[in-house]
Design a protein that fits this description.
This protein is α/β, with parallel strands linked by helices. The chain folds into 2 domains: 197 residues, Vaccinia Virus protein VP39 (Rossmann fold, 3-Layer(aba) Sandwich); 60 residues, no CATH class. The protein contains 6 helices and 14 strands. Helix 2 packs across helix 3. The longest helix has 16 residues. Bound molecules: S-adenosylmethionine (SAM). The site of S-adenosylmethionine (SAM) has 17 residues, from strand 2.
Length: 274
Amino acid sequence: MHTNARTPHRFVLYSAAAQEVDADLDFVRRLYRRRHARAPQRLREDFCGTAKLACAWVADRADCQAWGVDLDPAPLTWGDRHYRQPLGSAAERVHLLQQDVLRARTPPADVLLALNFSYFVFQQRAALRAYLRRARAALAPGGVAVFDIFGGTGAVTATREQTMIRGARGPDGARLPAFRFTWEHAHYDAVTQRILCHMHFEIPGVRRYRKAFTYDWRLWTITELRELLSEAGFKTTEVYTHGFDKRGTSDGIYRRVKRFDNQIGWLAYVAAWR
Ligand SMILES: C[S@@+](CC[C@H](N)C(=O)[O-])C[C@H]1O[C@@H](n2cnc3c(N)ncnc32)[C@H](O)[C@@H]1O
């Protein structure tokens, strides 16, 4: 295995393995439109990383603006170069803030998204509630905050799940070869609900990226999240889960549910209306 300047950046592999920004944006736009019969315009993306989602929000809609907030300058700088600047004149409508989500001040948003479980970084109830209060305060009246969450019996067990990700084009047009993505639950603590996760990548025969990303999180449950959203002042919360195809994997179609039989693994969106 070797490394050279032409092997893809770990942010490119991360995005191909872990992000589905078009599906996320489609979900939230439909959610908002169903309630308000108009399209949302202002998006705040908390924990935005490279802000791929914030950039996609404005890409083909001249009336949309986005604010992305992240503490870490590395993904922000990379995302600015690879996602924001290529937007041309639309880049002016994406505002990247290197700040703590607990402190960032942005214009009232129609939609706030905090995806890829990033709020799991808050491990105490008081800390998560404080963040959710800030998220609510960042919304315009009638606005909605959407959080994703995962769970299932496999989530509370030390496991490694491998997926082969198909080759594609990277953000700069360069060819991204097929690669192996491993999502590892290295440890789950049944007392504290603390979970340690790693993302590993391998381009067969070219390069391994061991522990390309590591997350030290608390695995919150949907119930806990909804209770804290309510304590933070959100009026209503809704849960959306996907169905399963014949192979037992997600069908990518999210429907509102009141109850849901546990599975080995599942993903859900929790939507909270201001
Ligand atoms: C799992 S990544 C999520 C990236 C992107 N949102 C996505 O959907 O893939 C988590 C991000 O949260 C950022 N982060 C962690 N704590 C933060 C905080 N208190 N304020 C702002 N950003 C934070 C990290 O720097 C990291 O980029």
